[in-house]
Amino acid sequence: MMSRIAFLTMDSLAEFVSYDELVADCLEARGIQVDNVSWRSRTVKWDAYEMVIIRSPWDYQQAADDFITVLESIDASAAVLWNPLEVVRWNVRKTYLQELQDRGITIVPTQFVQSPTVSQMRGMFEVFASDQIVIKPVVGANANDTFWLRQDSSAAELQQIEALYSRRLALLQPFIPSVTEYGETSLIFFGGEYSHSVLKTPQTGDFRVQEEHGSRIQSIVPNPALIEFSQRVLAPIPQRTLYARVDLVELPNGQPAVMELELIEPSLYLSYDADSAARFADVIQRFSA
To answer: At what angle do helices 276-288 and 20-29 cross, to 10 degrees?
Structure first.
């Protein structure tokens, strides 16, 4: 029987909302010790753990290469890493969206542009036939360096973004009105099986759906078609996953589309479903067998 595991986190979660203590409590009640270990720790002995589960390293995008190096160390140890290193490498760059689209899965229309210029950003309004666009980094989290632009956005703002993205690959998309009108639906899966869903609605005047930015979170029961669609989204993942979150929005034509597929460190919103923490604990134990 598994006796000791680690949840990979960050130095401080003071500015974030985490629900991992709920599943940790479930596991500890079953005799499994759970240690929260920062990915930046240089003294931890990974061989001391039977399993390391990536949970809340929500600053990894600041040093993504270093983060991957840490995961490589865990992968080379006696501990089993979840999600697997290959899955993290596939998911860490949002270019995975192109692969989903190539497999016939509807995503939010997306263009990848290296070092986008002011001219290129302005040209995206025509490309997307939209008067609003969003630009975000290909490696990123928590809406960091993400901007909501309008056709009348100032030259100074665009120039600042151009400088910020110098020598960086950017992801550009049309702004999807349903994000602010309704919200973004997150469907959570454990071991490839559907668990629960939440609706994330940004606060008035914002477009960011993370709790840290003031969004409203509520539990929902999604249409079965959304669950089936999300299961198809999971199909291209290169290995099985302990956990996954599919973030969907509704396009202007009424069709669901993938905004993100979160396989590294998604919030799992365990407090919004009474049985989800125990359900996740069950899968963790099953994956240890």
So the answer is: 60
CA distance 103 to 86: 19
Q: Where are the beta strands (DSSP E) in the chain?
A: 4-9, 33-38, 51-54, 80-82, 111-114, 132-137, 147-150, 169-174, 184-190, 193-201, 216-220, 243-250, 256-262
Q: Which segments of 88-192 are extended strands (E)?
A: 111-114, 132-137, 147-150, 169-174, 184-190
Long-range contacts of 152-161 (CB under 8 A, 24+ apart): 155/118, 158/118, 158/121, 158/122, 159/118, 161/116, 161/121, 161/135
Same domain for 185 and 261, yes or no, is yes
The pLDDT, as a whole number, for residue 202 is 84
pLDDT in tens, 167-188: 999 999 999 999 988 999 999 9
pTM beyond cutoff 0.90 = yes
More confident residue, 95 or 2: 95
Counting the structural domains of the chain, the total is 3
- Whether residue 276 lies inside any domain: the answer is no
Tokens at 178, concatenated: 């349903």
Residue 254 lies in a domain: yes
Determine the structural domain holding residue 47 and report its residue range.
4-83
Give the pLDDT confidence of 232-259 residue by residue, as tens digits. Answer: 999 999 999 999 999 999 999 999 999 9
- Domain with residue 26: its CATH number is 3.40.50.20
Please check whether residue 88 lies inside any domain of the structure.
no
